[in-house]
Design a protein that fits this description.
two-stranded antiparallel ribbon, 3 domains, mainly alpha, about 5% strand, single chain
């Protein structure tokens, strides 16, 4: 009898894990893969990455990233390798360009479950995984042909190696207190250390030095806090409130403690593995490009973005808090109860303290580092979303258990935020539909999902049926994510009519050159299947030549007059705003061959100019003469 009971107890966690795994896989898989390859690539990053992989594959070159016949120095090579591998199996399609992002997004969801399970409990891991999988910004990363999903995956993998190497499996429900080795807050098994730093090194191939710096700083900050010597109570009693706060902030960074902690993290191993894994490609691409890629990527993209505002991507100290609130929607409605829960759990030194401190280090380091940087983008802090999901999962689980010290009113009020958000989303979608989508209001129906789902969740919360309220929030998040990303994006994509002007370019003879005048989008290069030259308004020092010393060098920027002399049969792209000026600067045999509305730019049209004997004037196309 006893042996049967013991066997049943062993089976229960296994069956629970299988059930949890099935739930989060179905939810995340549906959100990430529904109609993944149906919409065309979205400007501007997706076509650049997908097109770069295509051009590398066509050249048979797995080293030098080139897009639009120019060196693409903005990102390292890993995203192109992944997309190229998918192209070889699935062909050069939108699905192939995005499938690795979705697959790695699913992997990050699984790892978030593992982190929540090891640090707190299986139920917290499940809620965190579902919350992450249905959050807006993480879903964007998982459905886009960008390096973000790769960086998030390998950063999270590095942290998972750290947690698994430091904390033992829980057996008594007292989370994050079971160190594998007494008083050792860093993995003592070398294989966990190797796995951790190898993951970071791959992250360096995904997005540069941040792949190593940020995860190391997160783990380092946690170690600085956890390994601080305990000060006697008499010492703290002598300090005032302000002194306590300042001492608590600066104590972890005392020089002796800081360097001792850094050394305990085995920095030589980190550097060696990074040089072995990421170093060879950086050296090789530097050699192949005469030093152009390392100098432009490391100095221009990394140091430049840290010290200067590039591409008008700026923001104040408020930027990332607002970004996190929007990006973690719908689960961001729990932000206030989560803040209260975290504060009270830390104040009472609960059994969740260690897990909360680690998650706060994860979020705090990520947000602080990129707040200090001059250039700001929402995607820069997406790697900390698993930590936000874990804190949210903990908050919801404590509420479900009936042991939350946060008043029920705050949870009900928080959940009602779904209804308010749904109203705002509906209004925004109606406006966008009228302005940019020819008045099609079907997309606005997506905004009704948070309104209806939120109403059910609030009703159950008022009735104190907390499990049903949580299930309603989860179902709302899942339905909203699938509807918005799986189907809403297709409706938006159907209004992209650029094929009207790009198809004639694709069908033209291979030797025909294409140039853009005062307009350029990355997707045009991909879908016209040829490079596009950018014309200059006035003459440049390059002179009248299209010659380049190396294939990766920037293409010469010539005026329309200079370009037409070298390429008398060229095709030109411009907008209705500049079409008359361009026609006046080209030979007389050029006419407007096609025109189409410019996507998401009201009143703007994309115009195709070709040479022919039967000229069509701008007036015949209803375009203004200037």
């Amino acid at each position: 009898m006893a042996s049967n009971l013991e066997l049943a107890n062993r089976r229960t966690p296994f069956r629970q894990t299988l059930l949890h795994f099935a739930i989060m896989t179905v939810i995340a898989g549906t959100v990430f893969f529904t109609n993944l390859g149906k919409a065309k690539l979205w400007d501007r990053d997706e076509p650049r990455n997908a097109g770069c992989a295509s051009e590398m594959l066509q050249r048979g070159d797995w080293v030098v990233p080139v897009f639009n016949s120019e060196l693409r120095y903005q990102k390292p090579v890993l995203i192109y390798w992944f997309i190229m591998s998918a192209y070889l199996v699935l062909g050069e399609t939108e699905l192939a360009a995005r499938i690795w992002s979705a697959a790695l997004g699913l992997g990050t969801v699984w790892m978030t479950y593992g982190l929540g399970r090891r640090l707190i409990s299986p139920n917290v891991g499940l809620i965190a995984a579902v919350g992450l999988a249905t959050s807006v910004m993480f879903t964007v990363a998982a459905r886009a042909a960008t390096p973000d999903s790769l960086l998030i995956f390998f950063s999270t993998l590095a942290i998972l190696f750290y947690i698994l190497g430091t904390f033992a499996e829980q057996t008594d429900g007292n989370p994050a207190e079971h160190l594998k080795h007494p008083d050792q807050w860093f993995p003592q098994n070398q294989w966990f250390v190797y796995g951790m730093y190898a993951s970071m090194a791959v992250g360096v191939l995904a997005k540069g030095p941040v792949g190593l710096i940020v995860p190391t700083a997160i783990i380092g900050m946690f170690l600085l806090i956890q390994t601080l010597p305990v000060m006697p109570d008499e010492y703290w009693k002598r300090q005032g409130l302000l002194s306590r706060f300042l001492i608590s902030c600066f104590r972890p960074f005392s020089l002796k403690h800081f360097f001792k902690t850094c050394w305990s993290m085995r920095p030589a191993t980190a550097i060696l593995l990074t040089l072995l894994i990421a170093g060879p490609w950086y050296v090789w691409v530097g050699y192949r490009t005469g030093g152009d890629f390392p100098s432009q990527f490391l100095l221009g993209e990394n140091f430049g973005r840290a010290t200067n505002v590039l591409e008008s991507h700026s923001g104040g100290i408020w930027f990332y808090p607002v970004t996190l609130l929007i990006g973690f929607f719908p689960w961001a409605v729990f932000c206030f109860p989560t803040a209260l829960t975290v504060d009270r759990q830390l104040s009472s030194r609960s059994k969740y303290q260690t897990a909360i401190i680690f998650a706060l280090c994860w979020i705090g380091v990520q947000v602080t580092l990129f707040t200090l940087a001059s250039t700001k983008l929402p995607s820069y802090v997406t790697p900390c979303y698993p930590a936000i999901a874990i804190l949210t999962g903990l908050t919801v689980q404590i509420w479900l258990s009936g042991k939350s010290s946060v008043a029920r009113f705050w949870f009900t009020l928080a959940i009602s935020g779904l209804i308010t958000s749904g109203l705002l989303i509906t209004i925004g979608l109606i406006y966008a539909s009228r302005e940019f989508l020819d008045g099609s209001l079907w997309i606005a129906l997506i905004g009704l999902i948070p309104i209806v789902g939120g109403s059910f969740a609030v009703y159950f919360a008022i009735k104190d049926q907390r499990h049903w309220s949580t299930i309603s929030v989860g179902a709302t998040s899942f339905t909203f994510a699938v509807a918005f990303f799986g189907f809403g994006t297709l409706l938006v994509d159907s209004h992209r009519m650029t094929s009207v002007v790009l198809t004639p370019i694709e069908q033209a003879q291979p030797e025909i050159k294409v140039a853009g005048f005062h307009t350029m989008e990355s997707s045009w290069v991909v879908y016209s299947k040829r490079p596009i030259f950018e014309l200059a308004h006035t003459s440049t020092p390059t002179g009248q030549t299209l010659h380049r010393d190396q294939f990766w060098k920037t293409k010469p920027r010539l005026t329309p007059e200079e370009f037409s002399q070298l390429q008398p049969d060229a095709i030109y792209l411009t907008t209705n705003e500049y079409v008359d000026e361009l026609l006046s600067r080209l030979p007389a045999n050029y006419h407007i061959a096609e025109k189409t509305p410019f996507f998401l730019k009201k009143g703007k049209e994309l115009v195709l100019l070709q040479p022919s004997t039967g000229n069509k004037t701008a007036n015949e196309f209803g375009l203004p003469l200037r």
